[in-house]
Amino acid sequence: MNIFLWTGLNKPTVTLQPSWTQIYSGETVTVRCEIQGGEGAQWTYEWRAAKLNTPPTSNEHRIIRATESDSGGYSCRGRRDNFFSEWSDIITLTVSCNSQHKTTEWSDSVTLTVSDNKPRPVLTVSPSWLSPGASVTLNCEVEHPSAGWSFYWYKAVPDLSEKSSSYELLPDGSGTAQDSYIIHGQTHTAGYVCRAGRGDPEYHTDHSQPKFVWSADVHSAASLTVSPDRVQHFTSDSVSLTCEGNFTEWRVRKFSEDGRLYSDCRRMTGSTCNINTSKSDTAVYWCESGSGEFSSAVNITVQNDGNGPILVSPVHPVTEGASVSLSCSLRTQKILSNVFFYHNDKLLQNDTRGELKISAVSKSDEGFYKCQYSGRESAQSWMSVKGDYSPVCCKCVLLFKDLVFSSIIGSLF
């Protein structure tokens, strides 16, 4: 039999449907042979690879659930009677077994943790005690920090009716990108709170616990006096903390050594809190008025050693140029001799005198003081020195003199 090549026809073309030459095992693909210019003719088809030639008459072959054995080159030609077209160019199909049923590998897992409780950020304040001209830095820390948090900064305003505080947004304190906030010009005791938010709509954390920056300086709006006027006390001493100012409602607040904040005095009579001291009363104390004012703050230290001495030193800062006397006292003996006094752990005097007198206090006298008697040391207390007041604040000078005079009178009794 004679076989003839049919000229005048375009070379057949092999196409894939879908047109991916890279497929995965389990996918379906159709291989099709197309002859441009041969429309209307009755063609049969031959294929390479040979396994597609059953039956040999179709112009397409459907590969269902492809396997790696279906990989290879595919070409075709057409036949009509004794006439054949050219062979098509080879198209290569690759079947990969790395994935099945049109699925990729599983990704690495990502763990999502959903907590029932709102997070509560932790606010820190630095410094804790104010000094003239110093700025106050607030830092707000969220547990498991991540990008996207905005921070909100508030001033705590006493609310005596609720035995708590309300919060007022600080200037430019809404939605800052930074987790810190700096306050300039703070002169009085104050409380602060922060919280954080993220997302759209924004999800907010709880408010932090309030943190305080304390001022020891007495000012005219509100003040706290201590009787007896000294920092250190023995256990079971009777100590009175009195809030003073033009306000009708007060509360005394206490920040203890273990970091707990107390809002109520156990025995409050009018504006005076009366304490029968125990070791747990070692703390920072201040007054808050019903109008939102804060008083100066004072340190109270309770001596737990019943046989040890205490240092008798003023509660409030001493004005530069004023005189001050420090002494050492036992529970059973108020006036002692042969006492050693230390300033910042440096021995100041060692003689028969029982008190340390500073006739004109200067800033260099500021620091920690303690006394030693019969081999036993008191706790150390900080004595703060403030600058002399200018004439525009003569009322402050008079107030301080009144406090010193009251302290002298009190010591006589």
TrEMBL record:
<keyword id="KW-1015">Disulfide bond</keyword>
<feature type="domain" description="Ig-like">
    <location>
        <begin position="119"/>
        <end position="196"/>
    </location>
</feature>
<dbReference type="InterPro" id="IPR050488">
    <property type="entry name" value="Ig_Fc_receptor"/>
</dbReference>
<dbReference type="GO" id="GO:0007166">
    <property type="term" value="P:cell surface receptor signaling pathway"/>
</dbReference>
<dbReference type="InterPro" id="IPR003599">
    <property type="entry name" value="Ig_sub"/>
</dbReference>
<protein>
    <recommendedName>
        <fullName>Ig-like domain-containing protein</fullName>
    </recommendedName>
</protein>
<dbReference type="InterPro" id="IPR007110">
    <property type="entry name" value="Ig-like_dom"/>
</dbReference>
<dbReference type="GO" id="GO:0004888">
    <property type="term" value="F:transmembrane signaling receptor activity"/>
</dbReference>
<dbReference type="GO" id="GO:0009897">
    <property type="term" value="C:external side of plasma membrane"/>
</dbReference>
<dbReference type="GO" id="GO:0006955">
    <property type="term" value="P:immune response"/>
</dbReference>
<dbReference type="Pfam" id="PF13927">
    <property type="entry name" value="Ig_3"/>
</dbReference>
<dbReference type="InterPro" id="IPR003598">
    <property type="entry name" value="Ig_sub2"/>
</dbReference>
<dbReference type="InterPro" id="IPR036179">
    <property type="entry name" value="Ig-like_dom_sf"/>
</dbReference>
<keyword id="KW-0732">Signal</keyword>
<feature type="domain" description="Ig-like">
    <location>
        <begin position="309"/>
        <end position="384"/>
    </location>
</feature>
<dbReference type="InterPro" id="IPR013783">
    <property type="entry name" value="Ig-like_fold"/>
</dbReference>
<feature type="domain" description="Ig-like">
    <location>
        <begin position="12"/>
        <end position="96"/>
    </location>
</feature>
